[in-house]
Amino acid sequence: IMVVGEYKGKKVQDVKKALQKQLIDKKEAVIYYEPEKQIISRSGDECVVALCNQWYLDYGEEKWKADAVKALNNMNTFHDEVKKNFMATLDWLHEYACSRTYGLGTKLPWDEQWLIESLSDSTIYMAFYTVAHLLQGGTFKGDKPNALGIKPEQMTPDVWDYIFYKNAKFPANTKIPKESLDLMKREFEYWYPVDLRCSGKDLIQNHLTFFIYNHCAMWPDDESKWPKGIRANGHLLLNSAKMSKSEGNFLTLAEAVGKFSADGMRLCLADSGDSVEDANFVESMADAGILRLYTFIEWVKEILSVKNNLRVGPTDTYNDKVFISEMNLKIRETDDHYNKMLFKEALRTGFFELQASRDKYRELTLVEGMHKDLILKFIEVQALLMSPICPHVAEHVWELLEKKGSIVQEKWPTAGPIDDILVKSSCYLMEAAHTFRIFLKNHTQPRKPGKGSSAQLVEKPSHATIWIAKSFPPWQSTVLTTMKQLHEKHGALPDNKIISSELSKKSELKKYMKRVMPFVQATREKIDSIGLQALNLTLEFDEMDVLAKNIIYLENTLDVESIQLKYSDSPEANEKIREECCPGNPYVIFSTQPSVPLLVVNTQHQSGHFTHIVRVGNGDSVTKLATQISRADRQIKDPSSIQFWRYEDPELGPRKMPTFNNPTAGAVHIEEDAVFKADIENKKVELSVNGTKYPLGSQIIYIVEQ
């Protein structure tokens, strides 16, 4: 802040220019220049900087700058940081030397001893692109006659004005036919403005800002010709380090293609980063990318070879509908990311997450099987979404699908209707299953031994009860309601200190104060993940219905025989269950039903099926045992294909060598309605058929029907 003189009370930065001019006018100061630091040439010599006569472009001129700012504000820069850098450059950029006396370049029209320097001479050349194919004669040098018969010397300023300015008059002194110039004018009007200019972030301070300025200067009265988008990117790191030949950390484009394939390299490049921060090409990720692409191709081949064995009919199961919505969601998200030039995000949603949706669908439909139409649709959508990044793999998959024509000529997929609530319910299911598996792991951990005793092993659970809450416990409801009110009041969730202060005033929370803030923090993290719906007191879907529709999946993933679903407001629920259980967070309790181990042997010749030990509980059915085996042997897709046989002599039967052409010799078929009776105390199993009991001994036979 100035403390004396006529500028007293004003900021130094605001009056610096005026004060400088005042001192020079009074001859109390002279302008003095020196370089910021020592300048060394590429040949290693120390440079002497000389101030010579020079031509400048006055980029700081008020009207011109205002147009440039206006153009920037109407432009898509894709990242806020890029726009901020442009604004900063527009603020400090003023006179810029635009000419030099050596090198290649165009002569300055009004002073031909000077050449226009490269940065000032390369800012509207894309306007020439629009008509270059008509003038160059099919060669890069333009040394051959063109189809229009136009010579370079005929392209006068008046001719260019007619091409570039919509309302310009036809040049009077030109010998070029009007039809030829009208053709070039149409080409220019069709292709302009520049929709997107891609370049490095280091050129924001010069070339890209000049690009904006000069378009505004060339078309001051036609904003439709101003640039529409600039995408600035960072530099490329290799394995998290700057590329350097001297240090050996270097990879050329040709080497990358040879090492990782074209699509493997493109996949890794897309995954290396989107923002103006430096992207990071990691070779281990490129290796992993090749494997993912190879695995996808092999999976497509496998599916197409067995497609007629897949389920057909209506696509109306819960998991069919979820898969349809998730495919449509990924199409919409990926299309949006491509439009925003966010290739890493497009790869995430259009490849990794879409593949994860496929994997989830496959896992959830192990019993009924995947639907043929949906899987073929998935392969088609996957190929299309990945085609901009991995065109060769996409084309190969397109051919495997026996599609006509090239994939690059195919229409981009359009997203159908998306059931957001259904998608959320599926996410809830997977998160709940993950939580249950953690509970199961903790449940089966050996109990800590007491003094002088060994660790106590926990028997594997056979049953589970999942408790579902219709509402939050009262104290949690109070916390959520208060947090929602504070969010509405402040426009955002305030600091935890403010929340804690507000909650401490609630008398109903005094009993739970030790648990209140951990719950607040957990809710904060949930808000970051799913948004403000984390503050809702109820869910948008029926938890009981979602879990019930996927009960077989839950039984398989938890490897239990049976799961019961109950509400936490049931009289059976104890206080702990009611406290631990809340909407969106079901609580699981595992238990082990008394049972007797029974050896089940497959006697089929070269079947590939193994011997299993099943746990037989009192009253178990044939179907229950078949389900146990199918969970252990993933080759068996349908439990109903398993048939059981008991030995006529339970003592001698298992000791006889099996007959290959008659694997059930000496055995009796066990009918579907038979019931197993387990004597837990004596560890024996009997079979009850219409009231008659048959001892089974220690072993029975199972056959898998083809």
UniProtKB/TrEMBL annotation:
Any GO BP annotation: leucyl-tRNA aminoacylation
Molecular functions per Gene Ontology: ATP binding; leucine-tRNA ligase activity
Tagged with keyword DNA-binding: no
Leucine--tRNA ligase ubiquitin-like domain ranges (all copies): 592-705
Ranges of residues in domain Methionyl/Leucyl tRNA synthetase: 197-283
SUPFAM superfamilies the UniProt entry points to: Anticodon-binding domain of a subclass of class I aminoacyl-tRNA synthetases, Nucleotidylyl transferase
InterPro entries, A to Z: LARS1_ULD (IPR054509), Leu-tRNA-synth_Ia_arc/euk (IPR004493), M/V/L/I-tRNA-synth_anticd-bd (IPR013155), Methionyl/Leucyl_tRNA_Synth (IPR015413), RBD_LARS1 (IPR055416), Rossmann-like_a/b/a_fold (IPR014729), tRNAsynth_Ia_anticodon-bd (IPR009080)
Annotated ranges, domain Leucine--tRNA ligase RagD-binding: 468-540
UniProt entry keywords in alphabetical sequence: Aminoacyl-tRNA synthetase, ATP-binding, Ligase, Nucleotide-binding, Protein biosynthesis
Methionyl/Valyl/Leucyl/Isoleucyl-tRNA synthetase anticodon-binding domain sequence ranges: 320-417
Entry superkingdom: Eukaryota
Keyword Protein biosynthesis included in the entry's annotation: yes
Taxonomy of the source species: Eukaryota, Metazoa, Ecdysozoa, Arthropoda, Hexapoda
Pfam family name, one: tRNA-synt_1g
Family: Belongs to the class-I aminoacyl-tRNA synthetase family.
Name of the protein in its database record: Leucyl-tRNA synthetase
